[in-house]
């Protein structure tokens, strides 16, 4: 595995995407930064992390003949890999909040930002960005966030967590590539926060509605039975769950 370790960069995702254009980094290349000056989150948000305390990494996965419609399976596999590692560290009450926030209880422990490189009908590569709170012991008030160390009461060496995470990601992606997509769907649904429960959702237009989460479909869209009685599916960025 090629590990590029940086003291600081704007965003490890941006760094790796730039590298992909300029050079030919191998599958599995990892970019890790102690400090991100413009860490990217979902929906154009910023990702803020205490320098040197947490994992802020981007991993390159290259694919051959993977259908573009399988994009979400890569982010499902990433969520499942993180869950696998957190279980090993005995982090309590792990859940995945759709689409791919990892929670302990109701507090966010990890964010994932996958940026896909699609050519025609195929997904050629994915830059998998992971911000995992490992040893940070304080978060701004009102930010429902936590870290592994706050949850298990001890700090962990970042290099060990990185090694565990890259191994788990490799396993989960290979499992998805070699089996039916329904396997990943079922494993994801087992961890899905709010499944079978009535939850509140908001839309980018500022509306809100409630409904019972049924699960996800085979391309990772959330299936919700709305209070109005209709069962609807929602893609990435179409709705957010209100915690
Ligand atoms: C989110 O929950 O909004 C996604 C956060 C993803 C943050 C990670 S940190 C490493 C990688 N580089 C970035 O700029 N973002 C991702």
Automatic annotation (TrEMBL):
Presence of the UniProt keyword Amino-acid biosynthesis in the record: no
Keyword Ligase: yes
Entries under CDD domains matching the protein: BPL
Naturally occurring in which organism (per UniProt): Lentiprolixibacter aurantiacus
Domain called BPL/LPL catalytic: residue spans: 1-177
EC numbers for this chain: 6.3.4.15
GO cellular component, one term: cytoplasm
NCBIfam families, per the entry: birA_ligase
GO molecular function, one term: biotin--[biotin carboxyl-carrier protein] ligase activity
Protein name: Biotin--[acetyl-CoA-carboxylase] ligase
Pfam family name, one: BPL_LplA_LipB
Keywords per UniProt: Ligase
InterPro entries: aa-tRNA-synth_II/BPL/LPL (IPR045864), Biotin_CoA_COase_ligase (IPR004408), BPL_LPL_catalytic (IPR004143)
């Amino acid at each position: 595995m090629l590990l590029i370790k940086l003291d600081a960069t704007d965003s490890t995702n941006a760094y790796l995407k730039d590298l992909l254009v300029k050079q030919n980094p191998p599958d599995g290349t990892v970019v890790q930064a102690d400090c991100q000056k413009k860490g990217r989150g979902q929906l154009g948000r910023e990702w803020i992390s205490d320098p040197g305390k947490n994992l802020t990494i981007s991993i390159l996965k290259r694919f051959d003949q993977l259908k573009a419609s399988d994009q979400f399976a890569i982010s499902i596999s990433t969520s499942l890999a993180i869950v696998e590692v957190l279980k090993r560290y005995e982090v309590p009450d792990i859940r995945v909040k759709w689409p791919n926030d990892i929670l302990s209880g109701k507090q966010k422990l990890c964010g994932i930002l996958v940026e896909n490189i699609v050519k025609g009908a195929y997904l050629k590569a994915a830059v998998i960005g992971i911000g995992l709170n490992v040893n940070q012991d304080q978060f701004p008030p009102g930010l429902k966030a936590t870290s592994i160390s706050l949850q298990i009461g001890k700090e962990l060496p970042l290099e060990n967590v990185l090694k565990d995470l890259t191994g788990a990601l490799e396993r989960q992606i290979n499992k998805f590539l070699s089996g039916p997509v329904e396997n990943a769907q079922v494993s994801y649904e087992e961890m899905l926060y709010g499944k079978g429960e009535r939850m509140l959702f908001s839309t980018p237009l500022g509306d809100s509605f409630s409904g019972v989460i049924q699960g996800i479909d085979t391309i990772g869209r959330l299936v919700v039975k709305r209070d109005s009685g209709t069962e609807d599916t929602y893609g990435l960025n179409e709705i957010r769950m209100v915690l």
